[in-house]
Amino acid sequence: MDKFEIVSSNFLELASEQRLRILSALNSKPYRVSKLAKKLDVTSQEIHRNLERLSNAGFVIKKSDEHYHITTIGQLMLSQMPIMFFITKNQKYFSTHDIGILPTKFSRRLGVLENCEHIQGVTNVLDKWKKIYQNSTEFIHDIISESPGMDEILVKRINKGVKYRHIVTSDLDEPEDRTSKLKKLGYYDLIKSQKIERKEIMTTKTILILNEKEAGIIFPTFDGTPDLRHMFYGNSSMFLDWAVDYFEHYWKKAKKISRVSHNA
Fold first, then answer.
1. CATH of span 89-256
2. Tens digit of each residue's pLDDT (9 = 90 or more) over 61-89
3. Distant-in-sequence, close-in-space partners of 129: CB < 8 Å, separation ≥ 6
4. Which DSSP category does 144 fall into?
5. Is it true that domain 3-79 has CATH number 3.30.43.10?
6. Sheet containing 196-201: which strands, arranged edge to edge?
7. End-to-end Cα spacing for the chain
8. N or C: which end of the chain has fewer CB within 10 A?
9. Residues 6 or more apart from 2 whose CB is under 8 A from it?
């Protein structure tokens, strides 16, 4: 059998709501057939039939104590479900948005977004963006292609000791009078004192905003424009790890902005 045949065979055994529920239950603890049937509110015959299929596939094993246990293979299969849950739950969204721009090492970990909140509407997205800035106590990292007009909030947080690392695109879209406003706020003085670190990349199609306890990501539509009508927001440790890794990936690639008068 080639790899596609093997994978399709495994998918066939997983193509059952009840079998997925059985694996999920066994991932918590071993069960006898009768107890598992009661937990899932189905007949013992149904459970036994599906356990036989899962056992033949190598996902579960019946031990001498008459309890069924999930195997390592079963655990690995179950660990891949979050990305399927996330994609399936947001199938309509991804029919108009592009994740092909993500480096493979990040797209393969998209399951960490499974429990993220899908914020919808420009006003709601910008409000959540603002709160991520406001809620920071240790650091703010962001990757942006346009100014959200929240410079005063940022400066206040930085003056409170929050460390700010900022990646912008070389074609950053911002208001004409932003430079004078930044000067009044003391933004460029904060750059000189190295309380703000900035870097520049040629282009980015995804917006990322995070602090030490929460993050939000905005994906682009197929024309490459970040869609401010939608944000995936979360505060789980796995999502935060993903967001920090994503930021650091681009921070290493970006070039330092040496000119203090740069409009960013």
1. 3.30.870.10
2. 999 999 999 999 999 999 999 999 999 99
3. 148, 150, 209, 216, 231
4. E
5. no
6. 117-120, 230-234, 215-218, 207-211, 139-146, 163-173, 196-201, 255-256
7. 56
8. N
9. none
What span, in angstroms and rounded, lies between the C-alpha atoms of 235 and 217? 12
Question: Could you please report the per-residue DSSP string of 101-124?
Answer: TS-HHHHTTGGGGTT-EEEESHHH
Beta bridge partners of 114: none
For 178-203, the three-class secondary structure string (H helix, E strand, C coil) is HHHHHHHHCHHHHHHCCCEEEEEECC
Of 194, 207, 212, nearest in space to 136 by CA = 212
**Biggest CA pair distance of the chain:** 76
- C-alpha 135/C-alpha 131 separation (Å) is 6
* Cα-based distances in Å from 46 to 42, 49, 50, 52, 166: 7, 5, 6, 10, 56
Task: Please give the backbone phi and psi of residue 146, each rounded to the nearest 5 degrees, phi first.
Answer: -155, 155
Residue 264: pLDDT band with limits 50, 70, 90: very low
Using CB atoms within 10 A of its CB, is residue 186 exposed (0-12), middle (13-18) or buried (19+)? middle
- The tens digit of pLDDT for each residue in 186-242 reads 999 999 999 999 999 987 789 999 999 999 999 999 998 899 999 999 999 999 999
* Paired tokens of 8: 């399709």
For the residues 125-144, what does the mean pLDDT come to? Answer: 97
From start to end of the chain, where are the E strands? 60-62, 68-70, 117-120, 139-146, 163-173, 196-201, 207-211, 215-218, 230-234, 255-256
